[in-house]
């Protein structure tokens, strides 16, 4: 609360009232003398408060409420600074559609399902529970396509064309049900990054057969409804890849023919260029409800505006979730509308539930990537989201008086369905403290300023008080500066406040909002060692805990043998990829800092050409093809090899069954075998069924990373199984 006399008109009103009371008492009795004395004391207290507030302002100090008490903080503020007036009238603009988060693109929520209770429910509450945390209004998910889509692979509901679909694969279905349980009004959007190989009819193009591709998407939409009672509100086409006009028209007709008339199409999840094609083709334009652009830099273009369509930043943010990331998100949430008329912004990604050393570390609204410890983090960017979502609902209208502040920053004003409630969100994010990962941000300046929002129309008569929520970001801010509530008077239809750089302020007529808090969070801890998994414990989900697929899909499998449940690679043809996926399916696990460990697993080749166990794997995500590490391969032609790359282009040791090095080895052809790798004091050991294959100095091997994940994998896209996986200290 700023020490500004305009902001404290209530104190001066009280001062004047008490002065009149104390000077009008007829002191003709002991009772009246007592009342006079009380009035005199109150008058003195209020007078002292007014003077102290003015002195604090003169001394360049302001007061903020922290945990119910006033705290002094220094600012550079000239009390004589003239307030700049901004009119807030009731003329309405576009309808607000919501703020959302994106799970997928890819596998960004992978570790969340592994969390223990109560931490898992707490995390979900922070994301989805209305009026508690981020209070998200849109959840966008990936329709899994069996291929890498940034930080991992998400499983398709139809690995093969003629197999019955399985909607319980992956975890997006679970996340959607949890979001809906907390907020039944949350809207669901879905988009494909990759596609199973059979979709392309032998090509790498998913739109070779319009009917096949549309039916694949519609099957998923209907499956979400039939299996989980989830209504999908929006579907996209192909993330950040070329669109096919004929396919989009066909998809619209196919959705309608399937009774999914209410499912709207968002396109093209790339640039605004699709708008030009829409202007020249009415049928094409009529097929699309929302033009979605990625990382638009807060601007749309003339053609997009000419279409008259709803405009979204259908993927945005993608920035490390420190205070600068929070500044990025705060700035674009306002300016996506002010500059570009975008009525929804969706954060990639929702939650960093993937290993830190995968691409785009912690570019999210929350961090939860330690299910073994239960530790999670609630950064300021989550509360930057709450500045809008806790005080504005989908269906509210932006007011046309939203705009830029003359000394830097922006403001948006929104009103409810009946034009009764009003929320104004103001941001003064500086350039260096609000840099997003993309696109480049041109230089600009923000300086201290005093602003007056003058309400007109019905608001002038009905709004007499507003609630103020303040977040101060920047390098020196801390938790006490984030999402702090106070009250601010409305005097003659005007609200005056002083703004410092890097502030986010919500003024609202709603006496709601909450900075949710569950108290202490478990302490962070490294991935546990020793670690083992026989894959028999997880019954709800179809993926083994803590494994992160980077090419191919590894699912839990009932083997029907003494091995019980196993982990099986199930993608048998190369998908239509979004990245340049490795031709060798691989799944990672563990701590990237691991160096000297023992990694072992039982392996069953089935019909595959070979399998591997690995350690010190240094890359994942779209760069997994180039991963280095230590890879011990067992091949179907009774051969083993040691390589230092996943691509097998650097062989270090090799042995075939008719070589002398094979003598004495036990190899169970067509059955289970055990592969092991171990590093101890710069020496590498390899074992097959407990028999030593080699002992090599690491210095004799080419390009060996100093540390990295453990991994399991298959030589090609074929079935293969793994069991009794273990990692121990060397």
Describe this structure in words.
- The chain is of the alpha+beta class and 730 residues long.
- The protein folds into three domains: 5-65; 96-396, TIM Barrel (Alpha-Beta Barrel), CATH 3.20.20.80; 531-729, Exo-inulinase, domain 1 (Jelly Rolls, Sandwich), CATH 2.60.120.560.
- Strand 6, helix 4 (172-182) and strand 7 (187-192) form a beta-alpha-beta unit.
- The longest helix has 29 residues, at 30-58.
- The radius of gyration is 30 Å and the shape is globular.
- It starts with 8 loop residues before the first helix and ends with a strand.
CATH hierarchy: architecture of the largest domain: Alpha-Beta Barrel
Number of helices: 12
Give the DSSP E fraction (strand runs of 2 or more residues): 25-35%
How does the helix and strand content classify structurally? Answer: alpha+beta
CATH third-level topology of the largest domain: TIM Barrel
Oligomeric state, counting identical vs distinct chains? single chain
Low-pLDDT runs: 1-27, 31-35, 50-79
How many domain regions? 3
User: What is the name of the CATH superfamily of the largest domain?
Assistant: Glycosidases
Overall geometric form: globular
The percentage helix is 10-25%
**Main beta-sheet annotation:** 8 strands, antiparallel
Give the CATH level 1 class of the largest domain. Answer: Alpha Beta
Q: Ends: how far apart?
A: 58 Å
Q: Mean of residue pLDDT?
A: 91
C-alpha-based Rg, rounded: 30 Å
Annotation, overall tally of beta strands: 38
């Amino acid at each position: 609360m700023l020490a500004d006399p305009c902001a404290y008109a209530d104190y001066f009103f009280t001062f004047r009232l008490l002065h009149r009371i104390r000077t009008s008492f007829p002191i003709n009795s002991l009772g009246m003398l007592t009342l006079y004395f009380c009035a005199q004391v109150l008058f003195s207290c209020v007078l002292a408060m007014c003077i102290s507030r003015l002195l604090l302002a003169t001394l360049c100090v302001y007061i903020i409420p922290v945990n119910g008490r006033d705290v002094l903080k220094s600012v550079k503020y000239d009390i004589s600074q003239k307030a700049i007036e901004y009119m807030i009238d009731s003329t309405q603009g576009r309808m607000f559609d919501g703020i959302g988060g994106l799970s997928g693109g890819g596998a960004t929520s992978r570790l969340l399902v592994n969390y223990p209770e109560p931490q898992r429910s707490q995390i979900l509450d922070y994301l989805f529970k209305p009026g508690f945390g981020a209070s998200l209004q849109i959840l966008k998910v990936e329709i899994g396509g069996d291929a890498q889509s940034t930080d991992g692979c998400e499983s398709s509901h139809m690995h093969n064309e003629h197999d019955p679909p399985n909607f319980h694969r992956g975890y997006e279905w679970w996340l959607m049900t949890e979001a809906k349980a907390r907020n039944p009004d949350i809207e669901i959007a879905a988009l494909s990054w990759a596609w199973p190989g059979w979709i392309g009819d032998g090509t790498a193009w998913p739109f070779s057969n319009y009917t096949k591709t549309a039916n694949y998407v519609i099957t998923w939409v209907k499956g979400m409804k039939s299996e989980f009672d989830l209504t999908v509100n929006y579907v996209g086409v192909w993330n950040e890849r070329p669109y096919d006009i004929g396919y989009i028209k066909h998809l619209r007709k196919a959705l309608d023919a399937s009774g999914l008339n209410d499912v709207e199409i968002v396109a093209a999840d790339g640039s605004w260029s699709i708008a030009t094609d829409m202007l020249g083709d009415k049928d094409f334009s009529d097929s699309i409800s929302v033009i979605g652009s990625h990382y638009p830099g807060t601007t749309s273009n003339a053609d997009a505006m000419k279409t008259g369509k709803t405009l979204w930043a259908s993927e945005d943010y993608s920035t490390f979730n420190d205070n600068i990331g929070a500044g990025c998100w705060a700035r674009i949430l306002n300016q996506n509308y002010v500059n570009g008329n975008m009525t929804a912004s969706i954060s990639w990604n929702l939650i960093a539930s993937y290993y830190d050393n995968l691409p785009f570390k912690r570019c999210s609204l929350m961090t939860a990537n330690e299910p073994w410890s239960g530790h999670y983090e609630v950064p300021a960017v989550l509360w930057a989201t709450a500045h809008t979502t806790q005080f504005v609902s989908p269906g509210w209208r932006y007011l046309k008086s939203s705009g830029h502040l003359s000394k830097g920053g922006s403001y948006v004003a929104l009103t409810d369905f009946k034009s009764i409630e009003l929320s104004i969100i103001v941001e003064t994010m500086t350039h260096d403290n609000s840099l997003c990962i993309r696109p480049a941000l041109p230089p600009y300046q923000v300086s201290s300023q005093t602003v007056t929002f003058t309400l007109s129309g019905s608001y002038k008569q009905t709004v007499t008080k507003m609630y103020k929520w303040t977040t101060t970001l920047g390098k020196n801010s801390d938790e006490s500066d984030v999402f702090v509530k106070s009250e601010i008077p409305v005097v003659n239809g005007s609200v005056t406040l002083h703004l410092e750089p890097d502030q986010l302020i919500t003024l609202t007529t709603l006496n709601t909002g909450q900075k949710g808090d569950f108290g202490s969070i478990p302490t962070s801890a490294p991935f546990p060692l020793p670690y083992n998994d026989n894959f028999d414990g997880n019954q709800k989900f179809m993926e083994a805990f803590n494994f992160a697929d980077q090419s191919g899909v590894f699912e839990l499998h009932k083997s029907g043998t003494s091995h019980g449940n196993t982990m099986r690679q199930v993608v048998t043809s190369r998908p239509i990829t979004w990245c340049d996926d490795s031709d060798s399916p691989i799944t990672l696990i563990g701590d990237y800092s691991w160096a000297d460990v023992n990694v072992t697993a039982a392996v069953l080749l089935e019909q595959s050409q070979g399998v591997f166990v690995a350690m010190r794997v240094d890359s994942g995500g779209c760069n997994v093809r180039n991963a280095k590490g230590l890879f011990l391969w067992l091949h179907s032609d009774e051969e083993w090899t040691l390589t230092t790359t996943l691509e097998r282009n650097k062989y270090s040791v090799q042995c075939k069954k008719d070589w002398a090095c094979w003598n004495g080895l036990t190899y169970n052809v067509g059955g289970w075998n055990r592969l092991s790798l171990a590093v101890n004091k710069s020496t590498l050991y390899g074992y097959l069924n407990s028999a030593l294959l080699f002992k090599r100095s690491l210095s004799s091997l080419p390009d060996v990373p100093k540390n990295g994940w453990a991994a399991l994998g298959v030589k090609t896209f074929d079935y293969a199984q793994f069991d009794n996986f273990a990692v121990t200290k060397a």
